[in-house]
Amino acid sequence: MYLYHYGIKELPFTLTPNTSYFFGLPSHKEALAVLLTALKTGEGFIKVTGEVGTGKTLICRKLLNELPGDFVTAYIPNPFLSPAELRRAVANELNVALTDHSDQQEFTHRIQQRLIHIHQQNKGVVLIIDEAQALPLESIEALRLMTNLETESRKLLQVLLFGQPELDQKLALPELRQLKQRITFSYTLRLMDADQVFQYVRHRMAVAGYKGRELFNRKCCERLFKASKGTPRIVNVLCHKSLMLAYGEGKKEVTIQHVNLAIQDTEAALLPNSHMRLIVIIACIILLALAATFAYESWLL
Ligand SMILES: Nc1ncnc2c1ncn2[C@@H]1O[C@H](COP(=O)(O)OP(=O)(O)OP(=O)(O)O)[C@@H](O)[C@H]1O
Ligand SMILES: [Mg+2]
């Protein structure tokens, strides 16, 4: 691969949400600040939504690393689970011992006992659910019931939901209105702008160990921004391909042609293509001509 060519120690644009590559984009920093504040208030549900590939899983992992020691965490990365499976997953995460024969009531009882026990140690419990849009409706209800246990001053279990915009559609369903009302904090991740794409790309290159001249100049990053709409995952794919192309030509710098080729080779990336632009220009000319004719005829009358 191109590591030696660019003098880097690892691939800078892998798709794994690796926290050592975290770049403090304003939206991501805000999200983390909201989450930490919300968790300190000890209230029920907190929700973070964002389009596909905007960094939700990365923020989950960052939060898991950054939560102070007075929080016990349970992390469910893939919640396409029935209520029973969800309860078992939560129990597992909280080190609750269960036999295969434990019935649902016993499940709930044991989880509650464990929550009380943790609370007595002056700690809070946070259940973090990634991909929350995949939670079946019945499991969302099971989740709500799990959070019912509370002391006079705070909930024993706080739930943090990370999901794609489909999560909001789900929560808008009438049968979930009770849960929706309990969401005390929510945050929507924003996409990057062109300057942020530039900083983001530079940051990832630096973390990978790159020390040379700017590899992706402003023009390239502007193009990356347009094609990705500022979505980090798509930027990663395009940068990786651009680096491969430049490497293939033995070049030490990525050019706009490399970026363009990378875009053409990537389905998720879109540039307003020249056909579309031509159609829009012709439509504008026709409209202008019609308007001019109309104005001229009105003037003649
Ligand atoms: N602030 C950031 N700093 C560094 N890398 C980032 C940042 N935000 C996103 N990324 C990178 O973008 C890619 C996509 O991020 P992630 O997998 O967290 O997105 P997601 O929102 O969870 O996507 P999905 O909706 O498909 O689950 C990952 O490679 C991740 O490392
Ligand atoms: Mg994710």
UniProtKB/TrEMBL annotation:
InterPro entries in alphabetical order: AAA_22, ExeA_AAA_ATPase_DNA-bind, P-loop_NTPase
Domain ORC1/DEAH AAA+ ATPase positions: 42-171
Pfam families hit by this protein: AAA_22
Keywords, alphabetical: Membrane, Transmembrane, Transmembrane helix
Membrane-crossing residue ranges in chain numbering: 278-296
Highest taxon of source: Bacteria
Record's keyword annotation contains Nucleotide-binding: no
Molecular function per GO: ATP hydrolysis activity
PANTHER family named in the record: GENERAL SECRETION PATHWAY PROTEIN A-RELATED
Protein name (record): MSHA biogenesis protein MshM
Top-level taxonomy: Bacteria, Pseudomonadati, Pseudomonadota, Gammaproteobacteria, Alteromonadales
